[in-house]
Known about the structure:
heterodimer; A: mainly alpha; two-stranded antiparallel ribbon; 21 helices; 46% helix; B: alpha/beta; Alkaline Phosphatase, subunit A; three-stranded antiparallel beta sheet; disordered N terminus
Amino acid sequence: MDTTQQLQHLYWRAGFGPRPQDVAAGLSPRKALRQLLRDSAQFEPLDAPSMHFEDPLGAVMAVPPGGPMPAKNPVSTSMVTTPDQAPATMSGSPAEAAPPAPVAALPARQPYRMGPGGVPRLRRADLTPEQRKMQNQGLREAFINISTAWMDRMATSPAQLREKMTLFWHGHFACRVRLPGPALSLHNTTRKYALGKFPDLLLAVSQEPAMLEFLNNRQNHKGHANENFAREVMELFTLGRGNYSEQDVKEAARAFTGWSYDAQGNFKFRPQDHDEGPKTFLGRTGNLRGEDVLAIILEQPAAATFLTTKLYRFFVNDTPDPARIAPLADAFRKSGYDIQDLMERMFSTDWFYDPANVGTHLKSPVELLAGIRRTLGVQLDNELPLLGYQRALGQVLFEPPNVAGWPGGRNWIDSSSLLLRLQIPAILFKNADFAVALKQDENDIAPNLTRADRTVKPTAGAHLPLGPLQQLLGATPAPAQPARLSEFLLQTPIRPENLALVQQAAAQNPVPAEALRNTLISLMSLPEYQLS
Amino acid sequence: MQRREFLQTSILASTLLFVPKILHALDRGPGLARLADAPGARRLIVVQLGGGNDGLNTVIPYQNDLYYKARPTLGIKESEGILALDKGLGFHPALKGFKSLYDQGYLAVLNGVGYPNPDRSHFRSMDIWQTGSGSDQNLSTGWLGRYLDSGAPGCQNPYNALEVDDTLSLAMKGTQRKGLAFKNPDKLHQLTQNRLLSKVSRETGSDHHHAQVDYLYQTLAETASSADYLYNKSKVYKSAVTYPQSEFGKNLKTTAELINSGVESRVYYVALNGFDTHVRQHEQQQKLFTDLGDGLAALADDLQKNGQWANTLVLVFSEFGRRVGQNASNGTDHGTANPVFLIGGSLQQKGILNDAPDLANLDQGDLRHQVDFRGIYATVLKDWLGADDTSILGTDFERMRGLV
């Protein structure tokens, strides 16, 4: 495997793919990794007014009364996919399995609740259908703005590793809520600690209102535990099944009682709702609180193994290799769970560049789309279709299927999703003008063409600057260009018969720019393009 | 370039040429497109009511005062044309199609179906129903996908489980095998058509490094051959039966045409959405139930005319029911247990199979479930499809003996 291939592999795994100029720069993989770490050092929150929803009508985030036993909110939530009939509360998660209550009657509802600053606000349940519709529209737009802004960063930000890590944690701490504010807050917390110390990340995420809501910790009361958060924090976030007992779940749930949030969306510990009794958790006894439980969890070697395995599967190979994972997990734990240190080690091993790990990762829908944009420098007039493709392909940001996140791997591929994936390049790049024509002096394919003939045409507002590709191709003669571009676009060697097909497609059009367009679309339409 | 022209010359179609020979041999061999125990093999049609159908206004306890107390304006009165059944229950007036199926002995109602610790989130509860998990488990495969994986007879190809939609539901995704989703056979065929397809491809080695590549090519090959098969088969029969003029009606018609054409599929999956009736429930249910009842009655009629009804079973479910008490907007909010309908030409037990939900014994205003939905899955898997329900569902759920 030559240096260029190694470099491309690193850019695909630690980010969203190489740009032509990255390959042309020709750094050694080691230098490139250092550069990636440097470029990802800064934390810049994702935020803009358009990502927030200021409800002119009333609060939608339920705020419990101060007592330890709030009345159960009977109203629950809606799929984001059918929001125009959505009921109240911020969460995409259910009301809890309620503590046993002798009374079957519904609690009387107050028409108003106190909002921030003591302003009474209407309850969502009391809104007219039109008001609800308006509200849902506002919520949807905010989510669209968050998603597209993040997709832009994946495609364009120099902080490639931070973006990729944030996507990993987005699936790891999978959470789905109705309100954009708490979702964005959780996102920025994972973004902030994405390369930091895992204990900080875990505590911060656990105290995010979105997570407390999603995993029902607001229904976890002294004397009436709700075990959802306690269970998932161990099963999915830290230890994995088999490394804790049902009794540990019960005790941990008691420790998390009192973890809640206020009307402004800030974490709030409610001492009167916290179970002060002694608890025995993973062999430790005391009046444990939530923070103690998280700390005890991270003392377990199983936590480092679990997390390292999950990272290995995401960044290296879907089939874990315990022999390679064990020393990494050990170092991870010894470093106080320093995520950046772990990633640097992982990307610095010889086996990371082993052919068995190259071109074997099935791109997730988000990786596929962000990768097309990044590697080709595509500019889009309208990003909404991309969200449509994400949905059709089964990965909508901020809408994981459940708390376990996206299963990934071959799960992405079925007959219909594969057909759509293979067509996306053609859909994107058919029958529209490229924003950039080949420059006369860069065009050594056929220098005497008119400008019109040098303009490549893809689609519907997707603009493809050809300069960088020209830089990559350098003096490569036209017949050899398909092969050169295949090395850039595909992470597995192109089959000779496929190369012949691509060459045929290129030859169908005598205009060099058109030939180049055909070459690109053909290469990206190969099944191999689904792999990185 | 015209779209059509593009598709014919597209690389996508051309790459099918290069599916490794060994896969072609598997895929295009004679006799593979045949169910092991066809003809007369049993099939299942799953109808998913998306959004959480209000079961209490579907199968109405119209002789129970508590029902009207909880729903002063939303409760449906006998005088509005409730279609009386048995045990003090009646269908919603718009479910005339269901009533006719019931009268012919083709319909069974299971009341109060749900699961422990019910979840009131649409997407999570649908996930639970589609995967067949408990509310405390997160599975990444669907119950029908695992049925495909289980190697039950006649589940060797994607077209052995078909979803009439553009994308495939989780329910139909197994680890090894997945169903096939498409809106109509012609469109699918056009995408994968290539006149060179029959040319023999060059052999390519298959070391583990290329396992993923082979997997993609194999999926593509299976898709292409399934598309071929469905396209050619589906030309056999065009339905003359009148279906509702709706998306759902059209999808049921497609389903019946595939079945009557002799397509050897074990599972069909069709969805009808819009049941999230927080407001104006009356109008919405009226429309949806007309669609649902008339559509399934037409399907039964269509299949009967072609001798395919006796080996067909339809399972109708929704991710949850609604709360017993109505809300302030003449609608209902998310609830728990709900009726499930089994419809088919060979039901052993028909009509109302168990007691009406107990409105005097609620859990915080919600129904308590009487039947675990996975018991129904187990019954369908084992007694109808002859599959190993225990391994597919991961646990041994109590089956309903002598039901199907």
